[in-house]
Protein: Cbb3-type cytochrome oxidase assembly protein CcoS
Organism: Seohaeicola zhoushanensis
Amino acid sequence: MSLGILIPLSIALGLIGLAAFVWALHDGQFDDPLGAAWRIIPEDRPSELNRLVQDKPAPDAADLHTPGRQ
């Protein structure tokens, strides 16, 4: 291909990318970047994990020893 086709094509693709970025910027895609990260974490999860940890007693040191292992 000649440069007469590739240069305008690359400029057009760059302008399309810039237009997509400006559209996303005005559409509110970058307004709350941390909110989406915290919304996926359920609020009841920490209490559920605490309940599981509190229900099981800690293993005794004698229980951790496996015969045949040193």
The chain has a mean pLDDT of 76. The CA atoms of residues 21 and 29 lie 10 Å apart.
